[in-house]
Amino acid sequence: MSQPFGSYQNEIYLDGLSGVVPRFPLLHSELEAKAQAAMPPSVWSYVAGGAGDEHTQRANTAAFQRWGLIPRMLVGAAERDLSVDVCGMALPSPLFMVPVGVLGICTQDGHGDLAAARAAARTGVPMVASTLSADPMEEVAAEFGATPGIFQLYTPTDRELAESLVHRAERAGFQAIVVTLDTWITGWRPRDLATGNFPQLRGHCLANYTSDPVFRARLGRAPEEDPRAATLLWAQLFGNPLTWDDLPWLRSLTELPLILKGLCHPEDVRRAKDLGVDGIYCSTHGGRQANGGLPALDALPGVVEAADGLPVLFDSGVRSGADVIKAIALGATAVGVGRPLAHGLALGGVDGAVHVLRSLLAEADLIMAVDGYPTLADLTPDALQRVT
Ligand code: FNR
C-alpha cells in the first residue's frame, strides 16, 4: 500500500527536526488571511465575495459545525481506504478540485489553471477545469499526468459553440463533463458591484473561447487583433438559460459521463436521473449566486436519497478534512474544495495547491484513524450526531 494520506504530518514533523517549518499555513483562517495579502485586491474580492450580504456563503461553512462525528474505539483502523469510483474514474480519495473560473489569475504568474492541473498530477486529486480559464483546456489537460480530469461547461447560447467546447474536451482527454446550471446569469454580488469588478469583462480567463474555431468564426477576425470585440462577443454568448427541454440535446453531445452541477432539490435530481445523466453535483456555488438559500450541506441528504445510487458530488463550504468526512457521511461520493484551493495557488502556485490538498487529505485520513472509521463505507449518517 502507498503511504497513507496522514503521513504528510510525519514529513512535517521530520522537517521540524532540522528546523524547517511548513511554508504554508495549516489552518484555513491563516491561509485565507495570507492569500488576501498576496492577491491583487480585485482578484481577492472576486474570490472572497458572494451574493447579497453573504449570508448563504457563511451558512455553507457554518452547516458543518452542526454535525459531530461519533468516535468508535478498538477498531484498529491502522489502514484506511479512501479510494472511490466516480463515474468510472478510479480515484485514490473522494477529494476533487471544484471549477473556479479565475484560477488562472490567482497565481502570481497568471497560469493558475496549469498550476492546479500540475497539483492534480502530483496528488491524484482530480481537477474540474472551468470553461473560464486563462489557458486553453488542451494545455490544462496536458498537465494532468495520470490523474483523470473533468471539464466544466458553461453552456453558451450558441449551440455550435457548446458542441465545439465539449468535443474539444473529449479530444483533450477529459473523462467527464460537468454542466453548471446555476450561473447562466450572474447573481447580485455587492462586493464586485461596489468596485465595478467583473474579471471576464476585463478580458480575463477567456482562453477557451478565443482559442475556439467556432468562436473565432463568429468573431470574424483574430481575437488578438480586437480583444474588446472578443470580450463583447463572449458577453453575448456566455449565459444560456437552459430548461429541461435542453437536457436531451446536452445528453446527446457526448458519451462521456454527464454530471449536472447546482442541483439541490430532490425533484430536480429525480428528473435529471430520468433524463439519463450519470452524476449529480450538489452545490450552492459557494453562496456566490443566490443569497437566502439553504446551506448546501443541508440539501445533501435529500439529494443523495433522490439520486438513488447515482454518484453525488458535493461542494460549498468545505474548509477542512473534518468537513470532507462529514459530507461523505451525509452521502456524498466525492467532495470538492473551492476557495482554499484559490488561496493555496495564490500563496505558492503548484506547491501551495498541493499543500492545501494534502492537508485536507491528511486530516480526513487521521480522523478516520482516530475515530475508527477505516473505510468510506463506514462513514454513514449513523456516524454523525447533530450537535446544535
Ligand atoms: C466559482 N465557482 C464556479 N463554478 C463553476 O461551475 N464554474 C466556474 O467557473 C466557477 N467559478 C468560480 C469562481 C470563484 C472565484 C469561486 C469562489 C467559485 C463555484 C465553485 O465551483 C464551487 O461551487 C464553490 O467554490 C464552492 O464554494 P466554496 O467551498 O469555495 O466556498
Architecture overview:
- This protein has helices at residues 8-17, 28-38, 41-48, 55-65, 103-106, 112-123, 137-141, 159-172, 190-194, 207-210, 213-219, 227-237, 247-252, 266-274, 296-307, 321-329, 339-371, and strands spanning 67-69, 84-86, 89-91, 95-97, 127-129, 149-153, 176-180, 258-261, 279-282, 312-314, 334-337, 384-386.
- The protein is globular, with a radius of gyration of 20 Å.
- 51% of the residues are buried.
- Helix 16 crosses helix 17.
- The chain has one domain (5-386): TIM Barrel (Alpha-Beta Barrel), CATH 3.20.20.70.
- It is α/β, with parallel strands linked by helices.
- Ligand FNR binds next to helix 3.
Q: Using the CA coordinates, give the radius of gyration.
A: 20 Å
CATH superfamily: Aldolase class I
Number of strands: 12
Looking at the overall shape, the CATH architecture is: Alpha-Beta Barrel
Q: Number of domains in the coordinates?
A: 1
Number of helices: 17
Instruction: Tell me the helix content.
Output: 40-55%
Distance between the termini: 39 Å
Could you tell me which ligands this complex binds, including any ions or cofactors?
ligand FNR
Oligomer: single chain
**CATH topology tier name:** TIM Barrel
Describe the main β-sheet briefly.
Answer: 8 strands, parallel
Strand order, largest beta sheet: 4-11-10-9-8-7-6-5
Structural class: alpha/beta
Could you name the CATH class?
Alpha Beta
Give the rounded overall mean pLDDT.
98
Listing every helix as H and every strand as E from the N terminus to the C terminus, the arrangement reads HHHHEEEEHHEHEHEHHHHHEHEHEHEHE
* Uncertain runs: none
- Which percent band covers the strand fraction? 5-15%
Indicate the overall shape: globular
